[in-house]
Structure formats: C-alpha cells, structure tokens
Write a structure and sequence with these properties.
The protein has about 290 residues and is mainly α. The chain has one domain. The chain is built from nine helices and two strands. Strands 1-2 form a two-stranded antiparallel ribbon. The chain starts with a helix and ends in a 14-residue tail after the last helix.
Amino acid sequence: MSFIAFSPLFASGALRFAFEKATTEGKMTICALIILSIFSWTVIITKSRQLYRARKMGKKFFKSYRDTRDPLEIARRGEEFDGAPAYEVYYAGAEETEYQLKNNPIQIVRVKSLSGGGPTATGAETDILARQITTKISTASFDSVRVCLERASSAQALSLEKGMIVLSTAVAGGPFIGLLGTVWGVMETFSGIARANAASLTAMAPGVAGALIATVVGLFVAIPAMFAYNYMVTTIRAITQELDGFANEYATALEHKYVDNRSLVDELKEVLKPIAQPPPIPELEPAFGS
C-alpha cells in the first residue's frame, strides 16, 4: 500500500515513459550523466570516509601530543595515528630533526656548580662541578626542518582536496549537460512536428517528455553533489587551517628544544674559555742554603 502511495511521487512510470520516448541524442546525454553520477558518488563515499577518519584520528593525535613534554616523544615511542594529516606532518618533521641531530649535531657543554662539596684538607669549602652535554642543531639545519614541515603540510592539503574537482564538475556541469539534452530533444520534437504538419498535443507530448528527462537526470546528479561538496569544502578548510596552526606550533616547540639559539658572543666565550685560563705556573723550590 505504501509503495502505491509513493509511486506517483517518484513518478516511476513517467520516467520510464519519458526515457522510452527520448531521442538517441537524449539517451546518450542520460548515459553520460549516469557515468558522471557514478564518479560523483564514488568520490562522495571515499572522501567522506577519509574526512571522518582524519577528524577522528586527528583528535587522538592532538590529545597525545598535548600530553607530552618533548616534541619528539611520540615518534620515539613509536606511536602511530594513520589517517591523521597532523600526524603525517609531525612524523615528517620528527624524521628530519632526528636526521639533523645525527648528522649535523652541535655539542653544547654546560658546567654547573653544585654546592655541598664539603671542606677539603685545608678546611676550604668547595663545590662539585657537573658537566652537562646537550646535543642540538644549528639554525641553518633547522631551516631544513621548516621546509620539510611546509612540504608535508602542502602534501596533506592536496591529499584532502584530491577528487573534489569531480564534485565541482557534477555540480556545475550536470544541469547544463541535462539542459543540452533537453534542448536537443525539444528541437528534434518540433522538427518532426513541422515535417509531419501535425501540431497536436498528442504528437508533441511524447517528444517533450523524452526531452525533459535529461534535465531531471542532470538535477539528480547535481543536487547530491552540491550538498556533499559544500560540506566537504568546509571540513577540508577547517582541517587545513588546523594543520597550518599545528605546523607553526610544532616548529616553535622543536626550535625551543633542539635548536642552538645562543648568541655569537656566547659561542665565542665557550670557545675561548680554555684559552683564557692559562695553565698554573709551578712553584720554584728555594735554592739550597738560602
């Protein structure tokens, strides 16, 4: 009963009748629209799954990243967040930073004075000197890390936008392709009526119905693609902006933790420190009999 009630709404009989009465050109137009619809729905399904996974895994990655102190801790623990664009950017930056730390390291030696050494044999209080060696990279090496982060961000943005051209084509081109089939069908109908000299409604109705079905199919292709395109463009824009902000935040964290930001004066002081302290001169023993 419900099927009978809804069958006039979907006009299944009218669509079948119109398709049967459509011209060869109209049927070719409808076939082209069906092919475009198949591509459009393929993109809608695959892109929806990709964006859903990107948002879900992105939230997990950001939570894990915010809970760490060291910007390389997640990579060193071996955690993976497949499908999160921010994680791909993070991993690319971590990999390049580790490479620079291994191949272009800068050893920074800091000497700290720890009190509590206790009195010596002469009764003087002394301090314990602790040497702390830290491995960092230079500013020039960090430029390579920045370039790597920018390249990874661009690659992830392109991956998110991949396939959207199909939806935009379906939105913009579907109605026009259908309109082309409709105009062509109407032209064929009026040409046939003119040749037959029979300008009656009965003679015109089948041809006009066969022509209008192309526009109907074009709208069926364009309307779902339009809603999906608007939603996906908004989601991709939000993820891309979030990605750019994370790349800047991550670069700043790496710079604070692993980049040698000492001034030139401090570096020269550290280099010249052994030279500025000459070796002690041994005391001369007094001459015999003096």
